[in-house]
Amino acid sequence: MGEGEAESPPAAERKGTEEEEDDFGYRLFPDRNKKPQSFLVRSLFTFHNKCQLMLKLTLETNPYARLLLEALKQSGCTVFNDRHFSCENCDGCVSGGFDAATSQIVLCQNNIRQQSHMNRVVTHELIHAFDHCRAHVDWFKNVKHLACSEIRAANLSGDCTLMNEIARFKFGLKGHHQTCVRDRAIRSILAVRKVSKETAEKAVDEVFDACFNDLEPFGRIPHSKADAKRAYRDFQNRDRYTANL
Question: Got a GO cellular component term for this one (predicted)?
C-alpha cells in the first residue's frame, strides 16, 4: 500500500494485542477501532463530505464500478452505499481497503483528493468484494488466496494502465503490465501481512498465471475507460442472453 495508492484488504479479526502477532493491516486503518461518530459530527468535516460526494459520483457514473456492482448483485451480494462503504481517516500511506470481517470497503478520506483516484480505489476494493462474494477466500490464513485477489485487483482496476505507470515515472515495453501487476500485488501483501518478501513473492508467483487470466466479471483487461464501458455493455448483454435461454 505504498505511494498513496489503494491496494488490499485490512482484513478481519485481530488474533490478539501482542505486537508480534499479525494485525492483518488494521494499524493502517485506525478509525476501524473507534466508536462511530454521529452523522452530524461527521458532516462537519470537509474530508468526509468530499469523500461521500466523490463516492456517489463513482458509483453512479464510473463503468468499472457499475459493472462490479451489477456483478455483485447477480452473485447475491447487493452493495448498499451506507452499509458497505465507510469514509475514514487512515495511515498516510494508504487509500483504501476491504474489511472482510464486516464486508465493508474503507475509503481513506484524508488521502483521496481527486475523482480519478476515488474511481480507482473503489474499483480495486470492489474486486476484492466480488472475490469475497463468489469464492471461499481465506483472507487471514491463506496468503495464496490474498495474493490471487490482489493480482486480480491490480490487473482489472486500472491500477496498471499506461497513464498511471507514466505518472509513477515507470516505463516499460513488452510485459510491463504483468510486471506492474506482480509488483503491486506483492507490495499489497507486505503492507497488510507480517510475512517476508520472499513469502509474498512465492505466493504471487505460484498463483499468478491462473489469477491474472481470471478476468471475471469484466471478460477482458480494461486498459481504459472505453474498455470498461465495452465490458459493461458486454456484461449486460450476457445477462440478457442468459435470461432468454
Answer: mitochondrion
